[in-house]
Specification:
globular; 3 helices; single chain; 5 strands; alpha+beta; endopeptidase fold (from Nostoc punctiforme)
Length: about 130
């Protein structure tokens, strides 16, 4: 999964608005289902991930990394987003070294003032 994500990421911190698509492609390449019901809006992917076997392992009411959480390769962060900056949210996967979406990120959060909360999901047996 993470090899596919890293191979398809475009640059560093060059967000292209295709984070959910990039993460879904990586999950499909890693054997996690791809179906027509997957949410195209990144922030709405939590229930879809749970439906496909992931469990929440961390949550923060802000865009900060949840306390008492240590990233594990394959973890998926879903940012809810919100007004005024981003209504569709953001989605990223930890590749074992950094967070990656449609770009290789230098920070956990996609932006300092990014609105909304974040929940981290993990599939069993990563």
């Amino acid at each position: 999964m993470v090899q596919s994500l890293d191979a398809n990421a475009k640059g560093v911190d060059t967000y292209g608005g295709k984070c959910a698509g990039a993460c879904h492609k990586a999950m499909a390449d890693g054997g996690i289902g791809w179906d027509k019901n997957r949410p195209s809006e990144a922030g709405k992917n939590g229930p879809w991930l749970v439906q496909h076997g992931a469990s929440p392992v961390g949550h923060s009411d802000t865009n900060a990394m949840p306390g008492n959480y240590t990233p594990t390769k394959g973890d998926i962060a879903v940012f809810s987003g919100g007004a005024p900056h981003n209504l569709i949210g953001h989605m990223e996967i930890y590749d074992g070294k950094q967070w990656v979406s449609d770009t290789k990120q230098t920070t956990f959060s996609p932006g300092h003032h990014y609105p909304g909360s974040v929940t981290i999901y993990r599939f069993p047996q990563q």
